[in-house]
Predict the 3D structure of the following.
Amino acid sequence: MAAGTTTAEMTSAAPVTRRRTPTGDAIRQLRKNKMAVVGLIVILIMIFIALFVDTSLFTFFTGGKAQPLIAPYHYAEVDFLHANAPPLTRTEEGKFYILGTDYLGRDNLSRTLYGSRISLSVAIVAATVSLIVGLIYGMISGYGSAVRDNFMMRVVDFLYGFPLIIFIILMQVYFKALSATDDTNPFVAWLIRIDDAMGGIFLVFVAIGLLNWLGMARIARGQTLSFKRKEFVEASRSVGSNDGRIIRKHILPNILGPCIVAETLAIPGYILLESFLSFIGLGANPPTPSWGIMISETYQAMRVAPMNVFAPAVALTLTTLAFNFLGDGLRDAFDPRLAD
Amino acid sequence: MTRYIFRRLLQAIPTLVGISIISFFLAYSAPGDPISMYNFDPKATPEALEMLRRQIGLDQPVPIQYVRWMTGVSLRRGDHAAEFQTDDTRCRYLASLDLTTCDSGKGVIRGDLGMSLQTKQPVWDRLVERMPATLELGVTSLLLALVIGVPLGVLSAVYRGSIFDNIVRFLSVVGQAVPNFWMGIMLIFVFGVILGWLPTGGRQTVSLTQEFDLADRIRHIILPATVLALGGIAIFSRVMRTETLEVINTDYIRTARAKGLGYSAVYFVHAFRNSLIPLMTLLGPAILGVLSGAVVTETVFAWPGMGRLTIAAVFQRDYPLVLGSVMVFSFLTIMGNLLSDILYGVVDPRVRLE
C-alpha cells in the first residue's frame, strides 16, 4: 500500500492541480466503506498491541530482559496457587487477574495480548512469502513464451491437486522432527535456531508460505497476460525498453494492486491455519501463547474457566474478521466491477 | 464427453504419482522413524531395533524404499525374516513385535497400499473401514451448505438492502472468519454440555449390539455437519447473491417481468438457473474444503473418519497408513475437481468440454 499513500500525499501537496489517480479514487472509495475502516482500525490496534505488549522492541537495541509493557504480566509467569482463577481475581500478593488465569495460573489477559504477536506475524510473513513467490512465478509465466507459460501453469494445476492440509501437517511433522535433532548441517542448524527463538512459529511460516502461492501465481499470471498486450507497453518497447524495464516500470505497478487485494483476502485463512496447527500440537511450541495452543490447552476445563477459551477465541475471530472486512473493502475499492 | 472424462482420468495419474513421491520423501526422510518409538523400551536393544528396521526396509535408501512401496519390487537379497531365529529372551520379546508381515506389499500400482505398522492390518482395510464415516459427514454437510446457502443468497439478492440482506451478508463474513475447531468446541459446549440436547462426539451411541439406529445417527451428525457446512454456507450465499443481482438486471428478466410473471416465477425459475453457473465452479473448491475441513472437524468431534485416522497416524508415525490416506485424499480431491468441471458443462452448454 506504500504506492497508494505516496500518491495520496502528492495530490494533497499540490492543491492547484488536484489530479485524480486510480489509487486516490480507491482510497476515497475505501474510506466510505465503514466496515473496512473498522477492520483497518482493529488491525492497527492489534499491531500496536503486538509491538508494545512488552519492551522487547526497545531491549532489542539496548539489550537486557524485556519487561511486560501493555500486558500486566509475562506470558509464562505461573501462579499455581491461583490456577483457573475466575475473572477479576485479586490475590493476597497484590496481583490482579482481569480475565482470570489458566490451569497453570498464568494470566489469561497477558497471554491473549502476547498471542497477537503470533497471529499477526503469521499474517504478515506468510502473506509476504506467498505474495512474492506467487508474483514472481506468475509474472515469469505470463510474460514469457506460450510454451513456458503452459508448462508453468501445468505445474500449478498439478500442485492444486494436493490435499493441502495433510501436506502442511506432513511438512510440520518433518520440521518438528528436524528441530528435535542436532543436525550438523549449518543451514539446518541456523533454521532451527531461528525457529527456537521464535517459539516454533518460523517453520509454520515456511510451510504455509511455501504451499499457498498457487492462487497468487494464477492471479499474477492473468494480470500480466492482460497488461503485456496493452498499448503503453508496446509504446515503451518501441522506444527501446528491455523486458526487465517493462516488467519493473509498467507491469509490476499495474498488477501489484489486485495482487495485494487478493493476498489480503487470503490472510484470514493463514491465521486460522496457524491456530489449527497449534491446536493439534504442530504449530508453536508451548509456552508460546499462540491462540490455537491456548484454546487446545484450556477447552477441556471449559466449564470451570470458560474465559480461558473465550478470550483467545474472541481475539482470533476479531482478527480474522478485521482482515476479512478490510480485504472486502480493498477489493471493492480497487475493482468496482466486483463490488456487490 | 466420454473422451474428456477419460483424458482427465489419465491426467490424474501423473498427479497422483507426483503426490506420492513428494509425500513419501517428506515422510521417510524426516529424522526419526516408526521404530524410534521403541527407543525408550528398556527391553529393546539397539541391535533389535536395527532388526526391526531391516524388517520393514527402513535401513535402505529412501528412493529404493519408494520403488518397493510403489511396485512391490524388493531390491534386497536374502531372507531377513530368518534373523529372528534366536533364543535371546530380549529378541523373543521383540519377535512379538514382529513387523515382517508389514514388508510383504505387492506395491501401490497393484492396488496394495501396504500394511499399517500399528495394527499390522492392510492400510486399505483400515481406510475403507473409516471411509463411510467421512463420506457421510462430507456429503451431509455439502448438502446442508447448498440447501441453506443457496436460498439465503437468492433471498438476500431479492430483498437487497433490507435488514435480512444485511444480516445474511454479515453472517456470511462471520461464518468465514470463525475458526472451524472453535465453532465445534462452542457447539459441543452449548448443545452437548450445557443444554444436553445432542451428543458431544462420535458417530453413534456406543452399545453392545451396535445396531443401526437412524435417529441416533442423525443426532450425532447434526453438530459436526453444521460446523463443516458453515464455510460452504457463507461462500454459497455470497456468490448466489452477487450472481442473482447480476442476472436480475438483464433484459430477459425484465421481459419476463413485463409479460406479467410473478416475482417467485421470475426469481426462482428464470434467474435461478442462470445464477447457478458460477456455483458449479465453486463446487470443486467446496468439495476440497469439506475434505480438508473433515480433518479439523473429525478431530474435534471424535468422528471416526479418515481425517482423524490420518492425524493419529501422523503422530504415531505409521507411515504406510499416512501415505495411503494421502493417496486416497488426493484421489478424492482430483475427482471432486473433475466432477465440478463436468457439472459446469452440464449447467452451461456454452462450455464445451473437449
Summary: Chain B has a mean pLDDT of 78. The two ends of chain B are 7 Å apart (CA to CA). The longest helix of chain B spans residues 123-158. Chain B touches chain A through 49 residues (CB under 8 Å).
